[in-house]
Amino acid sequence: MAGCLAAGVLGVVGGGVAAAGPVGAGSYTETLPAGRLLPKGCGDIATNPRLFVTPDAPQGAVPTNDWWSSLLWKRNDCAYSEPLHAHPVSYDTFNNGIGLSYTNTARITGGATGVSEFKFDYTEDIRVGVTGMSAPVVKVADWTDWTVTPFWSDGQRTMKATIGHGMPFSHYQITGGNARITGSTVAPTVWSNSGSTIGFSIGTDNYVAYAPTGAAWNVSGGVITSDLGGRGYFSVAVLPDGADRQELAAEYGRYAHAHVTDTRMAYSFDESTSTVRTTYEFVTTPREGTETRTVASLYPHQWRNMVGGTPIAQTYASARGRMKNLVGTASFTTRMAFHGVLPEVPAVADSSGADRTTITNYLNAELADPAKFLGPDTYWTGKGLGRAARIAEIADQLDMTDVRDSALRVIKERLIDWFTASSGETGQLFYYDRNWGTLIGYPASYLSDEDLNDHHFHYGYFIAAAATLAKFDPEFASDSQYGGMVDVLIRDANSYDRQDERFPYLRDYDIYAGHDWASGLAPFGSGNNQESSSEGMNFANGLIQWGQATNNKAIRDAGIFIYTTQAQAIAEYWFDVHDENFPAEFGRESVGMVWGDGGAYATWFSADPEMIQGINMLPVTGGHLYFGDHPEYVTANYEDLLRNNFGKPTVWQDIIWNFLAAGDGERALREFRANPTFTSEEGESKAHTFHWIRNLAALGNTDNTVTANHPLARVFTKDGARTYVASNITAEALTVTFSDGTTLDVPAGKTATSGAFTWSGGNATGGKVVTPGPTPTGTPTPTATPTPTATPTPTPTEPPNPMSPTQYLLAGGALGGAAGTGGSVSVAAANGNHDGTPTNAQVFTATGLTGTYTGQATTFDLSVDSGTSIGNGVQARVSYDLTGDGVVDRVETYAYFATDPLVGWEHYRQTQGLRSSTGTLGDLAGGTVKVEVWNAIGNTDTSLGIGDRSTVTLPFTAS
């Protein structure tokens, strides 16, 4: 369908299956807005995401953001995949088969400031294939909740391999040749060969291959082969550490021919007991015999919460810690308590009134601009919406209705703007791509368009803010207005509906691993990754709050399932609260990023310890009380920060103190009072920071021994006394019953607490209508995102260069604040290795710049093209002379970008990562900025887009 979807054609109505029809008053477009980017990969994958999918593979939207995504969405190698870290085995694909790696010892890497990463590398033990096979490409023949089936064909021989999370077995079906197993660096050492079963070692790793009954394995020249008795199927298993290999090989053998052909997760939420039960089922097809059970390896977040079942003594090492094994099982079940969330912590304080004055002053300061304008894209718009939602929640509790209504008005106006697409509009709208089955917001950021990264991060802010608005303006959330647009965002990031053919089920959430993945295509040797687990939880909390506000239990319960399970995964894999999963040599209390093969004390954007640890602490909302599930860990994390930072935090203090308050509120409050002039993190406000810290100091720690029969409830304990808290966002009073028998009466539209506190409240009526001003027609222009009112920059002398954060690479070597005519310049071939050293660079310079440093990082988007050349890598350096005195104060050299051998512009961005940096940034006062672009490697020239094609965004605002 061409054009924009007037009145939201082809949207979603309510909570039903996606179908043709209006999205109430909202809309999105199915015509790509001018100048916007689509998912990118090899060949015509942008318009055909099934390019590497076999015809008999599952229909519907292809999954993305998975542990195996590089197999389907090829970027670095247009034929095969990157390593696939399934656990306990990792895999890689090649023309002659699949590599298997079991790594039981971590590799620890360090930097100038100490250990920074641990990795269970893909180090190939064996390769499994078919004799003579040389497939030009590997495709995907099948996928299930946590398995994938790669497919090889060279025209004469074929192979299917089913691999997955929690599977020590890999299962194979072949035609046209014999099964073939080779050692990758050394010949296998055979320790048992009894006809159809052969056991062998590669170093300390023990494998067993199982052929059909009656077939035999032959060993010649270090190569293991079998004709499989003409039946074309076999399995390979890796044995756990410390096993009696002969005995366990025989025990595993009972299940070797029950090939896993489907996996399925099912969850349920029991509101009366606040319990999430999740069943993980392995569906098998017996290739011979009648055995239908298998061997399942469980992650720590699973085996700690398993109901029934007895794992064997032997375990596997993995990047997530020890995996325990159920031998002879078809399914297992976990049971986890959901401890509740709140729209916001309740307002409680001392009786002196001083703190009430402080919070009142902070809130009044937000009256004019509670959201701020953090940026035009989906992520920074979302952060602004989240900021405004926090202000609305706490202002409502304190009966500051003018501040509350100002925040709600901004939220409503911005959401309506984004939720309404008009013909010709290119920004602040959503586009649905039928090919990929995805909804992309433009302007995009952090490759949320080209790589489908981070949708749960970005859209979680929109959903959570919409939930806050829905409490006060139920009509906004109705099907006839904008509720359907919120539903579409939910379905895109993590559809809760298995029958929805337009979006993949739980796109960003890894069902078996128990947490989200951020990268859409996982084009890394280390697999997929995610840093901000807390932004993933912001999405889950948004589903709970939205589902509760709209009485949609399907959405609410999906949020509770993700939230409860992921809270356990975060405790295990980001925080290692039990001190069992990180290698002892790592020596850190947390990681900033979880990778498929390990964890890193790092982020994509900063090496500051405050940001490495803080990225898993923001945003801070009433849905982030899981921070306090292990209060002793909270203080350990903070002490680790002090060590890593060589002192107290100097940036993101509010985020760090908010986290600290979940374990030690009194200490966090002391830190705040000692330094109240700190600069707030972009998505935070001093009003919310003080509210959060002061009230947690009064309430104490969360008490996870007590749950409630209402999702918006939580219990706190201090000095042996409990405080019961519940929020009622409906128009009728309710009574909440806690698991210890306590009951709490909660008036309509109120947050109630037990005990006597000076502040109390919440004034949501469940029926208040927030009016955003005149009803928008066409594309609304939100009054909350005005043209900045900073003092205008004086008319510049030639060359024109207004102090705009966005600077364009222009003809003649200039940087300018206004775009020029699109064109290109040639970047000379490297003809050697110049990684890190500008050589024959194209140089672009801006002088006389004056601006205030924002504390953020440099970003850039350079259009580059090496045509059909192979092996080129273009590199960039940005230098800052802050005062124009000829002394360079800051130099940032970025990792080079390996261009593809295809004609067409590619986008080199700062997300390649900093290779090195020196100096520090401060305010610009008549300063100079220089951008150098050169080829680090490669023997041919590269085209660099100029005019309107390449930009550098400086971390400064006009002053």
What do you see in this structure?
The chain is α+β, with helices and mostly antiparallel strands and 959 residues long. Helix 5 (378-397) runs antiparallel to helix 6, helix 6 (401-418) crosses helix 7 (455-472) and helix 13 packs antiparallel against helix 14 (665-674). Mean pLDDT is 91; it is low at 1-21 and 760-802.
Distance between the termini: 47 Å
Report Rg.
Answer: 28 Å
Shape summary: globular
Q: Share of helix among residues?
A: 10-25%
Query: Mean pLDDT, rounded to whole units?
Result: 91
**Uncertain ranges:** 1-21, 760-802
| Main sheet attributes: strand count, strand direction, barrel closure | 8 strands, antiparallel
Total strand segments: 51
Number of discrete helical segments: 15
Q: What fraction of the residues are assigned to beta strands by DSSP?
A: 25-35%
In which order are the strands of the major sheet placed? 7-8-9-10-17-14-13-12
Class derived from helix and strand content? alpha+beta
List keywords for this structure.
51 strands, 28% strand, alpha+beta, 959 residues, 20% helix, 7-stranded antiparallel beta sheet, disordered N terminus, 8-stranded antiparallel beta sheet, single chain
Outline of the structure:
The chain has 959 residues and is α+β, with helices and mostly antiparallel strands. The longest helix is centred in the middle third of the chain and has 21 residues, at 553-573.
Question: What is the topology?
Answer:
Blueprint: H1 69-72, E1 84-85, E2 90-94, E3 97-101, E4 107-111, E5 114-119, E6 126-130, E7 138-143, E8 147-153, E9 158-164, E10 169-175, E11 179-183, E12 189-194, E13 197-202, E14 205-210, E15 218-220, E16 223-226, E17 233-238, H2 245-253, E18 258-270, E19 275-286, E20 294-298, H3 300-303, E21 306-307, E22 315-316, E23 323-329, E24 331-337, H4 354-364, H5 378-397, H6 401-418, E25 429-433, E26 438-442, H7 455-472, H8 483-494, E27 509-510, E28 515-516, E29 529-530, H9 533-549, H10 553-573, E30 593-595, E31 598-600, H11 609-614, H12 631-645, H13 653-661, H14 665-674, H15 686-699, E32 701-702, E33 713-718, E34 721-727, E35 734-737, E36 743-746, E37 751-753, E38 806-809, E39 815-816, E40 823-827, E41 842-853, E42 859-865, E43 873-881, E44 890-894, E45 897-898, E46 906-909, E47 914-919, E48 924-937, E49 942-946, E50 951-953, E51 956-958
